[in-house]
Write a structure and sequence with these properties.
By secondary structure, the protein is α/β, with parallel strands linked by helices. It has two domains: 4-67 and 147-215 and 310-373, FAD/NAD(P)-binding domain, CATH 3.50.50.60; 89-140 and 218-307, D-Amino Acid Oxidase, Chain A, domain 2. Helices cover 26% and strands 27% of the residues. Strands 6, 7, 8, 15, 16, 17, 18, 19 and 20 form a nine-stranded mixed beta sheet that branches. Strand 2 (8-11), helix 1 and strand 3 (30-33) form a beta-alpha-beta unit. Helix 1 (15-25) packs parallel to helix 6. The longest helix has 16 residues, at 334-349. The protein starts with a strand and ends in a 22-residue tail after the last helix.
């Protein structure tokens, strides 16, 4: 017998699970189960914290645009003002990378970018090496995200609507009987007719416990470093800079620079840690593109970004088991897509129409459905 029964169990307390649970809680009783001692320890707490509507696959870009109202004017319970502050994004190319940058302009829409030549690029980010970077596409629609306030805001919203958060509740068994799912955890047993699987890198493992179809989710490690800004330079107004091959990026971070090799190294779900080789590669790539002498790493970390084969997210009910909803595969776009994705999840779980604000962006929910991944295999090493 379960210790508690609700309408919906949400497994995973990162941004995806917290936001979906908060949207659901106003219309159903919700229990959120988080395996760690605090929600958001893994991918959510290690995000590069950017809102970039020109970044990611098509469905993610649509969801990102559809959630702008929440970022600009969050519910009062989030506290403070907007969750975002302006930060342009500059996509740059060497001569060899120009075809990639052109393809991105075509895919995203040329009207979303300002085209910059080498001189304009260096005027904006003077450390980019003269003669190395020759072309740039600037999107002024990007922003920094206050991820911590956003995540805590959704958790407060969930609790204020009567939902509960149970930490230290790793799901070890998941079974359905008489129309109810029962999740057994270290913190007790919890039941509900519907389970939302928002377990991040562990989502396919939770799916296996439920007997659901695998979606082929692959967690991929990404490393980030904090280094000092070049002496005497105020970097606060610099944009996020991403090279067209997506093999490095940099952005200002509290007067310093956050840099990354933009790596995607497959690994099993775990508490990801930076690899020494990734750190060395990151420093080499950034120093190759920029006039900067990196001698000391002030901080370093890694997080897992999880993808399915087509790199679009997965949101929808299982075709194999009843009452099991997949919410996974957000890759590196889960924070910026969370507000709209949470609304979409709430509508689908509660059997309501797709919200107008999402439909207006032209998103077809079938693109996200787990059934498109039939035949996928669970990732293993």
């Amino acid at each position: 017998m379960a210790d508690a029964t609700s309408d919906i169990l949400v497994i995973g307390g990162g941004m995806a699970g917290a936001s979906a649970a908060a949207e659901l809680a106003g219309r159903a009783s919700v229990t959120l189960l988080e395996m760690e001692a605090q929600p958001g320890y893994h991918t959510t707490g290690r995000s590069a914290a950017m809102y970039e509507p020109a970044y990611g696959p098509a469905a993610m870009r649509a969801l990102t645009r559809a959630g702008l109202d929440v970022f600009s004017n969050p519910p009062a319970i989030f506290g403070g003002g907007p969750l975002i502050s302006p930060r342009a994004s500059l996509f740059v190319a060497t001569q060899d990378e120009r075809p990639l940058l052109e393809a991105m302009r075509d895919d995203v829409g040329r009207d979303r970018f300002e085209n910059l030549d080498a001189e304009q690029i260096r005027a904006m980010v003077p450390i980019l090496k003269e003669g190395y970077i020759v072309d740039g596409a600037l999107n002024r629609g990007g922003s920094d995200i206050d991820v911590g306030r956003m995540h805590q805001g959704y958790l407060r919203m969930l609790k204020a609507s009567g939902g509960s958060v149970v930490t230290g509740a790793e799901v070890t068994a998941l079974a359905r009987a008489d129309g109810l799912w029962t999740a057994r955890t270290r913190a007790g047993s919890f039941s509900a007719p519907i389970v939302v699987n928002a377990a991040g890198a562990w989502a396919d493992m939770v799916g296996a416990l439920a007997g659901a179809e695998p979606i082929g989710l692959t967690p991929k490690r990404r490393t980030a470093l904090i280094v000092a800004a070049p002496q005497g330079m105020d970097v606060s107004a610099w944009p996020l800079v991403v090279n067209a091959s997506e093999t490095w990026y940099l952005k200002p971070d509290a007067g310093r620079l956050l840099i990354s090799p933009a790596n995607e190294d497959p690994q099993l779900p775990s508490d990801a840690q930076p690899d020494e080789m990734d750190v060395a590669i990151c420093v080499d790539r950034v120093m190759t593109a920029c006039d900067i002498d990196i001698r000391r790493i002030e901080n370093q970390w890694a997080g897992l970004r999880s993808f399915v084969a087509d790199k679009e997210p997965v949101a929808g009910f299982s075709d194999v088991v009843d009452g099991f909803y997949w919410l996974a595969g957000q890759g590196g776009y889960g924070i910026q897509s969370a507000p709209a994705m949470a609304r979409l999840v709430a509508a689908q779980v509660l059997g309501q129409p797709l919200p107008d604000i999402i439909a207006a962006e032209g998103l077809d929910p079938a693109v996200l459905a787990p059934g498109r991944l039939a035949g996928a295999k669970r990732f293993h090493i």
